[in-house]
Design a protein that fits this description.
It contains 1 helix and 15 strands, in the order ββαβββββββββββββ. The protein is mainly beta. It folds into 2 domains: 125 residues; 90 residues. An 11-stranded mixed beta sheet has the order 1-2-3-5-7-9-11-12-13-14-15, with helices on one face. A two-stranded parallel ribbon has the order 4-6. Strands 8-10 form a two-stranded parallel sheet.
């Protein structure tokens, strides 16, 4: 595909779409515009050189990987993006990425894969959405002391253990079919918004009764 120069807009603001077969040209155009948000879409077998990211490291804050990006050269150059605040992976990727190497990251939204590493050490995170998280509890997230928003979708968690001391004000639990123990919710002192949707093993919600005066609770069975 040829270079797409159209500037689009979503909830995160204006962004530029960059296709893998014109990756170099797309990054150079983003650099020219000094746009802080790009979406990456894989459309060919052409190798993508992440060293190009160094050209936008001074201002790029948001990246969304819309599809699986394959055949990457100079993968570690992605860590030159030290101003990144938000990362989105709409599909699991084939490469490894260390989330803790982005010192200003505040939000991560992703399908979980084994190459998504050191989420627990990304201490600047304020928001986290994980799809298909494979662990039975959330102890891995217990060190994220700034985390305010947590969404867990279609995952294998059986208990919410690990979130008790987090400063969560927004918690969404959707289609987690093994989830049964939600006792940890009672310990969330700053919680004001709770969604539990289609978590079929949860049969008793009475422990949430004491929270109804201060928390907006939505239960969808």
């Amino acid at each position: 595909m040829s270079l797409d120069k159209k500037i689009r807009e979503n909830l995160d603001g204006k962004y530029l779409t960059i296709y893998s077969d014109s990756f170099k040209e797309g990054i150079e155009y983003a650099s020219k515009l000094k746009i802080n948000h790009v979406q990456i879409i894989w459309v060919s077998e052409k190798e993508v050189d992440f060293k190009e990211f160094e050209k936008v490291g001074d201002f790029l804050k948001i990246i969304s990987f819309v599809s699986v990006v394959d055949r990457i050269k100079n993968l570690d150059s992605i860590y030159s993006l030290q101003r990144i605040e938000k990362l989105y992976f709409q599909q699991k990727q084939k490469f490894k990425i260390d989330i803790s190497k982005f010192p200003k990251i505040e939000y991560l939204g992703s399908e979980y894969w084994k190459g998504l590493i050191n989420i627990n050490k990304a201490h600047s995170l304020k928001g986290l959405l994980l799809l298909k998280f494979p662990k039975v509890n959330l102890n891995e997230l217990s060190e994220l002391k700034k985390l305010q928003k947590l969404h867990i979708y279609s995952s294998k968690i059986e208990t919410l253990a690990g979130i008790e001391k987090l400063p969560l004000n927004n918690l969404s639990l959707v289609r987690n079919n093994a989830l049964e123990n939600i006792e940890a919710i009672k310990e969330l002192k700053k919680l004001n918004d709770l969604l539990i949707e289609k978590c079929k093993k949860i049969s008793d919600y009475t422990l949430l009764d004491s929270l109804k005066n201060k928390v907006d609770i939505r239960i969808i069975k």
